[in-house]
Amino acid sequence: MTPIFRRKTIIRDISWLAFNERVLQEAEDKTVPLKERIFFLGIFSNNLDEFFRVRVATLNRMVKLGTRARMHLEHDPARILEEIQEKVINQQNTFEKIWADILREMKREGIHLVNEKKLNALQQKFVLDYFNEQVRSSIVPLMIESIHSFPVLNDKSIYLACTLSKSDKSIPQRFALLSVPVRILSRFVILPSKKDEHSIILLEDVIRFCLPHLFSFFGYDNFTAHVIKITRDAEIDIDNDVSTTLIQKIEKGLKNRKKGKPVRFVYDKDIPPALLTYLVKRMGLSHKDNIIAGGRIHNFKDFMNFPDSVFKQKSLRKKPFTHPLLTEANSVSSVVMEKDIMLHFPYHSFNSIIDLLREAAIDPEVVSIKITCYRLAPRSKIINALTNAVRNGKQVTAVIELRARFDEEANLMWKRELEDAGVKVLIGQPNMKIHAKLCLIKKRVRNTSIHYGFVSTGNLNEKTALTYGDHCLLTSDRHIMADVNRIFTYLESPKTREKLLLSCKHLLVSPLTMRRKIMAMINREIKLAQKKKHASIVLKVNSLSDESLIKKLTEAAIAGVEIKMIIRGICCMFTENSAFTIPVQAISIVDEYLEHARVMIFHNGGDEKMYISSADWMVRNIDHRVEAACPIYEEYIREELRQIIQIQLSDNIKARILDNEQNNQYVNPRNTKKVRSQVETYQYLFGKLQPAENLPAIPAEEPVEK
User: Fold this and answer.
1) How much is the pTM?
2) What are the catalytic residues?
3) What is the pLDDT of residues 481-499, one digit of tens each?
């Protein structure tokens, strides 16, 4: 297919697929430990599921809008869907080749993923016993030909589509469907094996082996079973019924999501044609619904939890360590009251955040705690600290974003738990997500109010803090905290206190001031470049898709501003242009940790402006969410952040070039020192903890030819 014609920016969804291809590259890279390669295949699969549930579902809706959709997209959404289909199929073929290679590598290490046809006598008995004791009670086969209304298939589940037949054809062939109970049982069952070997069978293959026992009373003697899965539109429609609360709308939306329109149907390519035709017809699908043939295994996202115990080679990942300014401190808050601290996750321990909140919960001088919560850990220590603060007489306010995609149900649960404990819970605004990561702690010392807290680029989630690269500024700076206080006051009464966001003098705040101030800083660099003075912009975000900001960056590059960008995911800017005075450096780093931080650095004529931010450069973040970008004033932190960014810009092992075609070519190390930025960043930050001679050796694997 000829690629869709070029426009002002690269199509967002095509750029996202290029990002997911980078994830696939990590699975393909033989220098990556085997366990991690499987993990990246799981991430790729999970990402693709969410892409179909959200983006493809949105494009399908736009197809129905016809010409009105073109006004927004500048393209026919149907053509974008066609290109998505082609790219996804190509990536899926690459996926299958990588998986076949990984299976061979696993076999060489004595790890065998066996199916129901490869079990020895001992393993057969084990599987049958396991099925009878653990599995049988968790599955209910559906004889689908006897059901008037075809069952609604859950898009987070996998199903076995079964054919039951008799060798002598004395009874008619029948079809059955059963859900594989991966929410109740592990997808992976470790079997009895030879010494120094590990055999693993998937749960669906356990069921396949036991089909004769499951359907024995029907009198059939031939059974086939093939995995199928459905992906549904995951958008939650919020209607405008003023008599319905936001909570009721979210609850209704969660129920409707389970019945969302199918946007993809994936099946085992070896499924009998008659069964496939029957399923497609009963589900009301057509060729436009992304009906995709795949391999034997689906829902590969479960492979993110592949058993650790079977692998000899372990991850290079190191444990987080405590920030050097906090290692000998009596309390985190006492240090923060004297000096700003920047925590860099996952290198620094998230426990310092937990400790800060725990200390506030029991400090007699602390009056109140205010905090925003977007995504929390399943067993959140943040929640524990907040509820303990209430028990100790503190006024606690928590902003819970109920529309955090795929965390809606969990956040509803946290809302109820916090309210039961006496926390004042705010649930945001009807048309605007609260995405800023803020905390404000107020204490009274000798009749004087003192504020301290933090501003972060990432979620307050101790689980993801182990793998997400983020920055968190702990500070008692009165200017920063005054702006944070204004944001919380606004959130408590948004209709009457919107002007408070406009009065923020230090933080850049979406949706009212961030765009204007970013534009002003870029314009400042343009004017300096036009005067032949040094001008530069360093930008690190997850996604760059805002057309106005891209246009301004393009203008800056033409004017002679030096632009360096680190963009993990979507990059809609054409980064190569013969009109650029200085070539734009744009890279994406995909490695063991997820690069999640947002950083902006403007040279500003030598008076450098540096910010960390919760906002990506996307329309939704800049114009339709409450976000905060925080200035960094302490010079030692500024230098630390500069060093980390420079290390990342120097990456020549895990960095890919974001060119106009988004081909994901690796940065060529040439004859320079090989730099794997996440390893180098750990070394740099750990080096601040102890003398260089005590640093642990962290080997950077030699990459294969890319």
Assistant:
1) 0.90
2) 435
3) 999 999 999 999 877 778 8
